[in-house]
Amino acid sequence: MRAGDEEGPPVLAPAVLRQAYGCFPSGVIALCGLQANGSPQGMAVSAFGPVSLEPALVQVCIQSSSTTWPVLRAMPRLGVSVLAEDQGTVARALAAKTGDRFRDVGWEANESGAVFVSGSSLRLETTLETEAVAGDHTLCLLRVWTIDPRPEVTPLVFHASRFRLLQPESARA
After folding, report:
1. By residue range, what is the domain housing residue 42?
2. Residue 166 placed within a domain
3. How many alpha carbons fall within 13 Å on the CB side of residue 88?
4. Which one of 1, 110, 119, 156 has the minimum C-beta count within 10 Å?
5. pTM as predicted
6. With contact defined as beta carbons under 8 Å apart, do 76 and 127 qualify?
7. CATH number at residue 153
8. Looking at residue 4, what is its pLDDT?
């Protein structure tokens, strides 16, 4: 918008925005913790990224309508697992609205109660640092306490509303 324009910003249709935002590829993470009864709780998130090295912070964006986030946010430690390229079914299971999300998902919990998906390419043990309402999402900053990178494991990529595989330049014709 130019200075002096009387109009506000344009109203953009959610479907158009979803398609536009889908042009940007993202990784897929599992955000999980251990409930008091010993069972895991978690969700799939595609809006994730590093924020700061000092202190070590990452961000996730979660739909404000999520019924899982209120449960997770109360947990003392949360595990962030960057899903591997062969874990599309895990992402779908953790994104399910109903049922046992962990029925066919391999997982481990550490002594602090952070839950990690088996076979993931990166594991971060985190705590909630702060959160802020950001439109129809909640922007959450998570402090990283421990890391377990596995660079030999290729991550899952979400692009244009589907899962994709990374391909090295040398594999292209």
Report:
1. 28-47+67-127+146-159
2. no
3. 10
4. 1
5. 0.89
6. yes
7. 2.30.110.10
8. 55
Does residue 81 lie within any of the structural domains? yes
CB atoms within 10 A of CB 139: 15
Q: Quote the DSSP letter at residue 10.
A: P
Distance from the Cα of residue 90 to its chain's centroid? 13
Q: pLDDT tens digits, residue range 28-48? A: 999 999 999 999 999 999 999
Q: Which of 143, 108, 118, 114 is nearest to 34 (CA)?
A: 114
Residue pLDDT, tens place only, 67-116: 999 999 999 999 999 999 999 999 999 999 988 999 999 999 999 999 99
- The Cα–Cα gap between 97 and 116 comes to 20
> Judging by beta carbons within 10 Å of its beta carbon (0-12, 13-18, 19+), is residue 137 exposed, middle or buried?
middle
- Residue 164's alpha-carbon distances to 18, 67, 88, 106, in angstroms, are 17, 28, 9, 21
Residue 82: closest CA among 18, 20, 158: 158
Residue in the block written with tokens 């994709």: 164
Of 135, 126, 111, the residue nearest 32 (C-alpha): 126
